[in-house]
Amino acid sequence: MPINIHVLQHVFFEGLGSIEDWLTTRAARVDWTRFYAGDPLPDPAGIDLLIILGGPMSVNDEADHPWLTAEKRFVAAAIAGGTPVLGICLGAQLIASALGARVYPGPQKEIGWFSITASDSTPGRFAFPPETTAFHWHGETFDLPPGAVRLASSAAVTNQAFQVGDRVIGLQFHLETTPASLAAIAEHCADEITDGPTIQSAATMQQAPPETFAAINALMAAVLDYLIR
Asked: What is the mean pLDDT of residues 73-96?
């Protein structure tokens, strides 16, 4: 039987990226809640994997985006019900917030290609390579939620990836990035590309060689395989 995937999407220009290929190879059934289009949230029962995508808003912006309150309740309920969950960037922050952790401005923005370092190698947890170059686009960070284990850090931000239990992973960075998805976020969030020690120009970001994209996309597939194992 095909796996049932539900995707929470916050803005039209942050999509699945390389995850689309992973879903295609598994003949997955994919349903969406596109908050920017007013889509409703589903019944979490029957979802084999919940994927929470990124977005330029903060999890604390309920006044501007009232659906954030319902989304966090939904994420908490899905986790409590044992649904495997992957959160990417804003998605990771939503998991942290839904589980009671604080989300707040980071010490500095990370926009571009920067290294992450594995923080945990406990058997049974997802294991990142000792060091990986990943694509970042975020200004906020979070405390680890109760019971979470840090999986990766960067020089600028301590909490880059975490795992809760056996089936919940939050990634502050973007492993799903493709040349097309990078171009889209660089176009629609160009105002965030300012001077800073960990902010690259759009041209620098887009000069990454094909093997850099291939490496992070393979790691994204490994994370997904782990969550539905």
From this structure: 98
**How does pLDDT run across 173-203, given as a tens digit for each residue?**
999 999 999 999 999 999 999 999 999 999 9
Confidence of residue 120 (pLDDT cuts 50, 70, 90): confident
Note whether 13 and 185 are within 8 A (CB): yes
Hey, what are 1's tokens? Answer: 């039987």
CATH number of 118's domain: 3.40.50.880
User: 119 is written with which tokens?
Assistant: 């923080």
The DSSP string of the chain is ---EEEEEESSTTS--TTHHHHHHHTT-EEEEEEGGGTPPP--STT-SEEEE---SS-TT-TTT-THHHHHHHHHHHHHHTT--EEEETHHHHHHHHHTT--EEEEEEEEEEEEEEEE----TTS----SEEEEEEEEEEEEPPPTTEEEEEE-SS-S-SEEEETTTEEEESSBSS--HHHHHHHHHHTGGG--S-TTB--HHHHHT--HHHHHHHHHHHHHHHHHHT-
pLDDT surpassing 80 at residue 121: no
152-157: average pLDDT = 96
Residues with catalytic function: 89, 174, 176
The identity of residue 209, as a single letter, is P
Q: Which residue range is the domain that position 17 belongs to?
A: 4-227
Residues whose CB falls within 8 Å of the CB of residue 77, separated by 6 or more in sequence, listed in order? 44
Token pair 């659906």: residue = 67
